[in-house]
Task: inverse folding
């Protein structure tokens, strides 16, 4: 999502009288007051540090170290098929999309553990790819090539798969264990039925609509256009639906590990454009729990946002609830047309100031086993000093 295109789209919607009159929007509920459950399970989050300017092999070694400290791979058997789900919302290189180096390292590690097939795939955002019952426009394959991820994955020994290429009928309805804010199950790609395991590889980034885009938000890439339309149109529970989507039956049964390369962080605007913070010591973040992963990833994003130079702080676009709300109407228009945009709910954006204020995490605590008691483990002994203060906001950290 580019600033110029977004603002042009907002202007167009406003000209069609969607924006100015509040009465033209569907009624919007206040954010749900979800109280996190008491701290319970102890969940490991493995962090491997990567120094700024380190060789590519150093980053790939950090990925392998962090992954191996986060899980013992006892779930893997020789001959298994594994699907790697990156964040490919556009064709813009990392950190606007998942790190190709991290993907290549994970493919190699899975091969070493005995995987017979490793498949890397996703479907890009509606600005770039639109699948409908009548046809297709755009290409996730082309955008993965542009990002550098496709070549890295192929060279490491992976297959590539793009959900839209299977057509409208290449999806199935996946029921939700906790889907109070969804009208039906999610339309998920059939390739997930063919694999034994799923590895989620998101990124650590700002998002103009959602506040942040981490592991829980990355589930959107699986969905067919009609599921994405419901998500954006019924936006009063946008953040709660984000968390609930991670209770899809397939994900609960097959997702084994969540790993993010966060040695570069997209700290403003997002998901495609914004200021990139490149800390002296970056992180690889890995956990078997997407909730625990996101607690640490959000802490790292918050700390990184504190370090954005004043001249790079795009206050109005980055913080404005109006921009977020109108941007969501624009996305709804792209997904479902003018009528869908007119009747869509107003999006209430996460203010992204504290871990405790994140609606996605708060809902996730309530439906995915409570607030994890996070056990931070430094896989290679390198933990950035600036992260320790932000982690202090997480009372469950040990």
Result:
């Amino acid at each position: 999502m580019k600033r110029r295109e977004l603002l042009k789209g907002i202007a167009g919607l406003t000209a069609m009288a969607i924006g100015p009159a509040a009465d033209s929007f569907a009624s919007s509920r206040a954010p749900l007051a979800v109280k996190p459950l008491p701290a319970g399970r102890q969940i490991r989050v493995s962090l491997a540090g990567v120094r700024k300017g380190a060789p590519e092999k150093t980053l790939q070694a950090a990925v392998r170290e962090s992954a191996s400290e986060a899980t013992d791979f006892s779930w893997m058997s020789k001959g298994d098929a594994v699907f790697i789900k990156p964040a490919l919302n556009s064709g813009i290189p990392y950190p606007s999309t998942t790190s190709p180096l991290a993907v290549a390292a994970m493919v190699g590690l899975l091969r070493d553990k005995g995987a017979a097939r490793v498949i890397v795939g996703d479907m890009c955002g509606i600005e770039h790819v639109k699948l409908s019952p009548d046809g297709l426009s755009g290409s996730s394959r082309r955008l993965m090539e542009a990002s550098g991820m496709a070549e890295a994955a192929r060279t490491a020994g992976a297959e590539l798969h793009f959900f839209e290429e299977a057509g409208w009928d290449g999806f199935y309805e996946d029921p939700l264990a906790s889907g109070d804010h969804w009208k039906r199950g999610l339309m998920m790609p059939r390739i997930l039925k063919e694999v034994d395991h799923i590895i989620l590889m998101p990124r650590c980034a700002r998002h103009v609509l959602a506040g942040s885009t981490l592991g829980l938000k990355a589930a959107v890439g699986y969905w067919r256009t009609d599921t994405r339309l419901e998500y954006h149109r019924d936006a009063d529970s946008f953040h709660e639906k984000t968390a609930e989507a991670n209770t899809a039956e397939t994900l609960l049964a097959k997702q084994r590990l969540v790993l993010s390369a966060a040695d570069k962080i997209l700290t403003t605007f997002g998901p495609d454009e914004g200021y990139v913070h490149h800390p002296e010591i970056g992180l690889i973040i890995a956990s078997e729990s997407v909730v625990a992963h996101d607690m640490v990833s959000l802490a790292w994003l918050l700390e990184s946002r504190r370090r954005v130079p004043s001249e790079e702080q795009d206050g109005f676009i980055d913080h404005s609830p109006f921009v977020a709300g109108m941007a969501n109407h624009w996305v709804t228009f792209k997904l479902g047309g003018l009528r869908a945009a007119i009747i869509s709910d107003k999006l209430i954006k996460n203010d992204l100031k504290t871990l405790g204020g994140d609606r996605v995490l708060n809902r996730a605590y309530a439906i995915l086993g409570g607030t994890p008691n996070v056990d931070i483990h430094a896989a290679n002994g390198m933990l950035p000093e600036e992260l320790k203060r932000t982690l202090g906001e997480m009372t469950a950290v040990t």
